[in-house]
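seq:
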Amino acid sequence: MSSNLVYVHRFTAMTVPCEVILFADEAEPLALAIEDNTRRLEAKYNFHDKDSWLSRQINSRGSDRVELDHETWTILRLVRQYCEATQGIFDITIGSLKYLKACQPDLSREELYLSIEPYMGLNSWSLEGMNLSFTHSQTRFDLGGVIKEYSVDQAVDLVKAAGVTGALINFGGDIRTFGQKLDGNPFVVAVLNPKDTQKPFFSLPLNNQALTTSAHYQRHYQFSDGQTSHILAKGGVHPQVLSSTVVADTALEAGIYSTALTIKPTLDVPDSIGFAFIDDKLTLHQDAEFIQS
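struct:
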């Protein structure tokens, strides 16, 4: 489905603006299919909706074992692989803390972590065949740091299946490209200035790659005794890192690593992954040597 036409489709999902750029004739049905699939995933895995599949089947489970559908098994298998690679720094069981906070909103941040930490982490859940097993009933998943990125990857799968020669998917700054622009050049994307998000800080080309940036300068999480970054970790995000940007083969992999690197910028990453930091002095780094121990 090659074309000299550029079709742009915009919508809002998962609380962020979403943009689909397709180089294809009659691209509207494909763009709408991407939107429909994104909304389906949002509804299915919504942590905050008590009627979502995630809430009903996993977080309100009646036993320590849940039989998974193939889609959920695929997602959790990939997530576990990347969580293990980040030494458990990226942790979907943060939903356990969020649930406890909703039930006991007066607890301080420290009290919440002390209460729920034994029920979090990779040791609290496992995959056994098509079954998801839990060690503790208090363990809950929040896939908010996963499903948007997975939706981007799903969008590219739909693009490939349709035979489109070029596409850029951008869901709230989680970006993945496929093919090339009409002039044969790769897509070039910008990473914003953490202290002035109306201005680009640097840009780079993407060749069938994904880019995500994790930062803590815009969104926050409110505890009873104070406010923190929306990127939750017991030790908090690293104070010298304003944002971390990762380039990887998929948006899911990039998103998990960019989040983990915001917490622990000295984390070892595979050679196949590119990353960059913007520090608290607005200096760009392509390694973690600037981190002070």
